[in-house]
Design goal:
By secondary structure, this protein is an alpha+beta fold. The chain is built from 8 helices and 11 strands. It has one domain (about 5-299). The longest helix has 23 residues, at about 65-90.
């Protein structure tokens, strides 16, 4: 059985708590308990990227694509050294246009492939039809041990959907936000998408990750948060600008984003420090009355 990570270990290693023997501080939203797994044991599901038994039986001996290998080679591995450089320098200033797109492709992957996206969609559909929300479970594709064409279509679509989203996000502006105190958290559904537009009830908010006027955030360390802003007048096919100078977040702005990471998570949130749990629980629970104008950085 393979242990397939939907959050790369290279990213999670930056969130380890050295006082905990280099383990993670993970808040379980359902139980309220704090867990301390090793990096290799978190952000993964057994055989998450394995095609169903039906597909493997039907195409026995054929060259079936290895989803895990494709995602590693095409999206994760090219981005890893760039993130090391970005974190070390706290700047995007040295990125070439090709390197910029490598980072955007990684953000797109983390939005497309995490179980939280599928869970959110199923929860939205359930509420739309007056049905009960599905159990908060990250194994959204079920098990590969039974014939399951829906599972296979979903897994086979991840690389193509990622490329398509990355091509649209090419038009977005890219910045780096710095969290004071290195206290940014990351959830099991790590890319959060926000819009300053009032959304009708029938529109699923997660589809706005690349819509004009939207913001998307992905923490890559407790101090470093990738920020993509798609301007209202963005045109597909164009390339946005990259801000070389990082944005210094206030404590309030950081807590605001941490709260959305917590709300966005299906079940688990990783905290750099165990003593953040009280603040995070407050930010998750309270109504967000204040909107931070991150877009002003691009004026």
């Amino acid at each position: 059985m393979a242990k397939d990570h939907y959050i790369p270990q290279s990213l999670l290693r930056r969130f380890v708590d050295h006082d905990k023997g280099r383990n993670l501080n993970v808040l379980d939203k359902l139980s309220g308990k704090m867990l301390h797994p090793a990096v290799k044991d978190f952000g993964s599901i057994k055989d998450f990227h394995t095609l169903s038994n039906d597909m493997r039986t039907e195409f026995q001996g054929e060259d079936l694509p290895n989803i895990e290998t494709i995602l590693n080679l095409k999206f994760e591995d090219p981005a890893a050294p760039l993130f090391e450089r970005v974190v070390e320098n706290s700047s995007l200033g040295s990125l070439t246009s090709d390197e910029r797109q490598v980072i955007i492709r990684f953000v797109a992957l983390q939005w497309v492939r995490t179980p939280g996206r599928i869970f959110d969609m199923r929860a939205y559909l359930a509420s739309s039809f007056g049905e009960e929300e599905p159990a908060r479970n990250l194994r959204v594709f079920g098990t590969p041990s039974i014939p399951d064409p829906i599972r296979d279509v979903g897994l086979l679509g991840i690389p193509g959907d990622t490329e398509g989203l990355a091509n649209v996000l090419r038009r977005a502006h890219l910045a780096l936000a710095l969290a004071p105190g290195g206290l940014a958290v990351v959830g099991d559904n790590p890319v959060i998408a926000l819009s300053d537009r009032e959304l009708p009830d029938y529109l699923y908010a997660a589809f706005l990750v690349s819509a004009p006027g939207s913001d998307a955030f992905l923490p890559i360390s407790p101090r470093h948060i990738l920020y993509l802003h798609t301007p209202p007048d963005a045109i597909t096919g164009t390339c946005g600008k990259t801000l070389p100078t990082p944005l210094e977040l206030s404590i309030d702005a950081m807590n605001y984003l941490n709260g959305f990471q917590g709300k966005n998570a299906v079940r688990y949130v990783v905290l750099p420090r165990k003593d953040q749990i009280a603040t995070l629980e407050v930010e998750i629970a309270k109504q967000q009355a204040l909107r931070f104008n991150f877009k002003r950085a691009f004026d």
